[in-house]
Amino acid sequence: MGIIVPTLYNVIFAEYLQALHEVFLNSGFQVVVVNSRYSQSEEEQAIRTLLGQRVEAIIIVGVDHTPMARRLLLQSRIPVIETFELSEDPIDINIGLSQSRAGHDATRYLIDLGHRKIGFMVGNLDVRAAARLGGYKLAMQEANLSWDGLISSIPQHSTINLGAAIMNTLVGKQKVPDAIFCIDDNLALGALMECRKLGLRVPEDISILGFHDLEFAAYASPSLSSVATHRRELGELSAKTAIAAITTKSRGVENRVDLGYEIVTRQSTRGRSS
């Protein structure tokens, strides 16, 4: 089985890969994982490499590919499963969630708490981060709120340290929002820790919302509110679907499956009237 992920650096893909490995290895399949490094050209080469190794299926993170990559996958005649995002035109099977809708609903959640000056914190702006940013802007626009000066980015891998650095930059510019939607929990935890150093109380002075609901979010102090994505379920369903497609020649599910997401409320967010 061929699996293509954009990075082996981000813990976000750990549960997903673990679930894929467990299902495949327990069913007697070997797994080849290739890192595309968020590059469409490297993804295209990875597809060529996996097809050259005669893999029986390809599971790939994302739905945005080069025209040649898409052609190679369409012509491969093997099961192809695109994950983590939803596509209006799947190559074969598509299992994921709407990143833009998740970004919109996360921002709407903060607006509904009474926040009006809502920041957006991001490291590298990959396609999924860009979709969440688009959802953030749409929600802000619908509420007649401005995001001018509230989007903060340092183009690096998302880490706790980077979250602290971006938060420190925001304060240095004297543009402290009353809530921040972070592109993932790493940045959220870094922002939370930096607020403590800067004398900003969470959530009294500023609410912080993460994304993905990594394990540490529930154990932070204060605990982090986050948008939970079902990464383990995504891996398990993708693997089982690939096996079914190979062994029974049927897909077993609709060609487009929305696993959705859930906003998990904890201590790092609260209404302004509280």
What does this structure look like?
With 274 residues, the chain is of the alpha/beta class. It has two domains: 2-97 and 230-260, Response regulator (Rossmann fold, 3-Layer(aba) Sandwich); 99-227, 3-Layer(aba) Sandwich (Rossmann fold). Helix content is 40%, strand content 18%. The chain has eight helices and twelve strands. The strands form two sheets. A six-stranded parallel β-sheet has the order 2-1-3-4-5-11, sandwiched between helices. Strands 7-6-8-9-10-12 form a six-stranded mixed β-sheet, sandwiched between helices. α2 runs parallel beside α3 (67-75). The longest helix is centred in the C-terminal third of the chain and has 17 residues, at 231-247.
